[in-house]
What does this fold into?
Amino acid sequence: MAIQSSKATFPGGVHPPENKQLSEHGGIEPVSPPKLMAILLSQHLGAPCQPVVAKRDTVQAGQMIGKSDAFVSAPVHSPVSGTVKDIALQSHPVVGRTTAILIETDPDSAAESKPPFDRFDSGFSAEPYSVEQICKAVHDGGLVGMGGAGFPTRVKIEPNPAMPKEILLINGCECEPFITCDYRLMLEGTWQVLAGIRLAAKACGVDRVRIGIEDNKPQAVSVMTEAAASVKDLDIQVVAIKTKYPQGGERQLIRSLLGKTVPTGKIPPTIGVCVLNVATCAAIAEAVVLNKPLTHRVTTVTGQAIAKPGNYYVPVGMTVGDLIEHCGGLTEQAAKVVMGGPMMGFAVADLTTPLTKTSGAVTVLTQEDVTRAKHQKQQTPCIRCGRCLTACPEGLNPTKIAHAVKYNRMDLAERYYMSACIECGCCSYVCPANIEITGYIKTGKILVARAKKRMQA
Amino acid sequence: MLSKLTVSPAPHISQKLSTRRVMADVLIGLLPAVIAAGVFFRLRALLVIAVCVVACVASEWLCNVIRKRPASIGDLSAVVTGVILALSLPPMAPYSAAIVGSVFAIVIAKMVFGGLGSNVFNPAMAARAFMAASFGAAMTTWTVPATVDASLPTIAAANTSATTQATPLAWSKAVQKGQVEATYINEQASWAFWGEVGGCLGETSALALLIGGAYLLIRRTITWHIPAAVLLSAGGIALAAWLIKPEAYVNPLLHLFGGGLLICAFFIATDPVTAPLSVKGMWIFGIGVGALIMLIRIVGEYPEGVMYAVLIMNAFTPLIDRFCKLTPAGGVPDVR
It folds into this structure.
């Protein structure tokens, strides 16, 4: 099977050290659930869930414990059997503190769950499942985009007459440094991912599928290419694309694979494209075929400052601290614990923060990784070198936006298209003055959103 | 353990690059020109450079102390200003004048505006303009390089004493005025390339400047756009003039290698603080600088125009930045 590769790529971007060697050879290992889990009620973009269980209720593994009637939302489920201990505020990796359901694991059912990779093989067919069935299972299973943004998957794949989909793109880029969870998933759960892709293609109503994988993962490219060749009823191709951060950004991937640009402020369906992460596809297969909600995911625990880096099949709701403990704990050099990769992840100080459906990694960085200047938060004045303009994959002027935000000029920030920023972090990464450009832009977006809310109220 | 964990916005890693490193690269790029100055003008040249650097760093430090701000001399930008200012001075520039110029560069042209990153004009060029106005005679006295003997072909009018010599651009002016044959002057182009001609400390050797410029380009300290724009526009105008009237205008190579065009293209116009941010802006800026240089050299009364060309375009930089607003990758959104 000839491997298809493409030199086409998006403008801008950066090449941070990949550091994938730390965990790329570690097979996916199951983790036994800890004594206490905290399942956050907001693990997705959209309306947060309301609890449907009460304190002291007993719950079964896979039981729905929170839901919302809003269209853009996804229910949450308990990964374990046990007792609801409390419904309380808990530290959240992104939004500060939100409500979580705390569940005490029943010691008799505390067995670890294994990923169901062996339940899928090359003989899979999407034939027996109707589009409605797939969409319902995907919604009821609480599926969200597992690449990071956490957009409810049902909304994405459901047929939408206003924006018909023409092509399905599968994101196997994993462009963030350190992270290897999608890579291992493609190697070990190849058939499960492929089954999910076929179900998603059926729901989307498309017969063209392109799987984009960065060319620094040749093994994943060849395994996926071989598997894809067995599919006869779909035009499905694996494309090895240039290794460059943020190749796995939705808008960047579309540009690289199709040469098309998603208009500023618009979403991919407006140009007939649906993009799904490989982990989401695996979860679709699990939800539709095995009727299993999204309660576990593959998470990479990595970094120089962790004793046992590797890839783990983790119950969603396990705290970062418990997972780090499972991996042998932090070493002396640990300077920063990041949920997600080093470019877009969120640093946490509170190790009781639970993992969410979108937590693809826990990266523990040393002072050396962070660099001294960044660690000491030393910023020097902008020398207008323009490196951030060159690095910006969205063609923006990051320094102008950051300075507008710094001086509270949101009107000016918007004139430089602040809302078009994808927050990839390339500008901060290249800045010789070590200015937290991305940080300023994120702050600016939050301030604008708050001001709009106040206007409505 | 918990207390040692830090929290900050993403990204959590960064390129190992600092402003100090950028400035250090510029200094390394200037090294060949400094060495060339030492070869052609001996100890005197190195002393002028040292005086300028010390005066620049000291005045920046004093400004920090007076304004009760953290010391900013560690970023090496004052050293760069000092070296560039020194390299744009005549070899026999009095030390006192060099010190006054350095203080002007840092205090008036840089720190008054708010320090590094906030200055409107290139500090070294602003100071040089100030010195040209204040020390007219000293700023136009050109010494014969130490490596050549004083019997070199020079122009009688400019050659008032045995130790002074006209610069290639002064010859060019003389050609325009019909004082000397153009063909005779054109033979000097190769000397201008190696550097055995009269001129400012750092501008005589085109070779040294090209080596330094190549270093900056390889290190990606500067992008190629501004140097290309400056050289193409200046070279293009010089070529056009020469083709139209070869008896009145000298060989364009003399314009490229002589005078401050190369140091301007690689080290002065590329000063990021005072140049536009966008690539389109860089082209406009560079073409403007090159065109103004040639306008002053050919039409104006001065033989050299680098300093004023850079200062004029510096003033236009905010305007250029405003005009060359970038379009996002996804195009300008329909509804704002």
